[in-house]
Amino acid sequence: MRPSAYAAVNVTNELTSQGELPHAIRVDDSTWTLSPTNAGKDIEIHLDKQNQLEWWAHVVTSAPKIDTSKIQPENSKLGDLDGETRGMVEKMMFDQRQKEAGKPTSDEQKKLDLLEKFKAQHPEMDFSNVKME
Amino acid sequence: MSGSPPPEDKKKADADALAKEQAEQAALPYKWDQTIKDLDITIGIDAKYKGKDLDVKIGRNTLKVAIKGQEPFIDVCARVHMQP
């Protein structure tokens, strides 16, 4: 019998929070820093998720879970987007607002503008029966 | 009365669940926050500690955060734990 050895193992097990990370992370993109705060220092650990489309319910499998269905992601800012994506998103937002207000979307507006121009250039033609789709 | 509970009961159950969740998370030795892409953990320690006093290991499925010679804040290094 070696009771002292058993006792040592017991203590170790109590001290460590058992379990593992619930999901894999990208080690190369994960970092940690130590920064001074008003109260002392903060160890800040940044983990990049392997699957960037899932919410974690906890950091350690043994820790209590949070309700991930209640998470409300922050709206991403337009300024974070690159030029092309931003233009597209702004156009979609504009069209959505126009639609809700019962006004023509940007594409429809373009067609209307073209028709007006064409009308102006051809006063001899009759446009009274023209319907816009 | 049967079927789904009235809205005020549902609201109270949600509030209770949220309070319980917040209490559980506040009891952890670390704070954490996430976006859909990444996750940040913050652990407040005494100002006297420096980087070299810390033992931080980040692995694919493992994480250890400790002040050397002290009980770790997080230690999920071993997949298999010794049983007494």
Tell me about this structure.
The complex is a heterodimer of chains A (about 130) and B (about 80). Chain A is α+β, with helices and mostly antiparallel strands. Chain A has a domain at about 80-125. Chain A has helices spanning about 5-15, 85-100, 105-120; strands at about 25-35, 40-50. Chain A is elongated, with a radius of gyration of 30 Å. Residues about 1-15 of chain A have low confidence and may be disordered. By secondary structure, chain B is an alpha+beta fold. Chain B has one domain (about 5-75). In chain B, the strands form two sheets. Chain B has a three-stranded antiparallel sheet with strand order 3-4-5, with no helix packed on it. Chain B has a two-stranded antiparallel ribbon with strand order 1-2. The longest helix of chain B has 20 residues, at about 5-25. Strand 2 of chain A pairs antiparallel with strand 2 (about 40-45) of chain B.
Summarize the structure.
Chain A has 133 residues and is an alpha+beta fold. Chain A has helices at residues 3-15, 83-100, 106-121, and strands at 25-36, 41-49. Strand 2 (41-49) of chain A pairs antiparallel with strand 2 (38-45) of chain B.
Strand order of the largest sheet of chain A: 1-2
- What would you call the structural class of chain B? alpha+beta
What's the SSE pattern of chain B? HEEEEE
Give me the side-by-side strand order of the main sheet of chain B: 3-4-5
Shape of chain B: elongated
Mean pLDDT of chain A: 80
Instruction: State the helix count of chain B.
Output: 1
List segments of chain B where confidence is low: pLDDT < 50 over at least 5 consecutive residues. Answer: none
Largest sheet of chain B: 3 strands, antiparallel
Count of DSSP strands of chain A: 2
What distance separates the N and C termini of chain A? 90 Å
How would a crystallographer describe the biggest sheet of chain A? Answer: 2 strands, antiparallel
Report the radius of gyration of chain A as a whole number of Å.
Answer: 30 Å
Number of helices of chain A: 3
Task: Kindly estimate the percentage of residues of chain A that lie in beta strands according to DSSP.
Answer: 15-25%
Derived structural class of chain A: alpha+beta
N-C termini distance of chain B: 52 Å
Order of helices and strands of chain A: HEEHH
Q: Indicate the multimeric state.
A: heterodimer
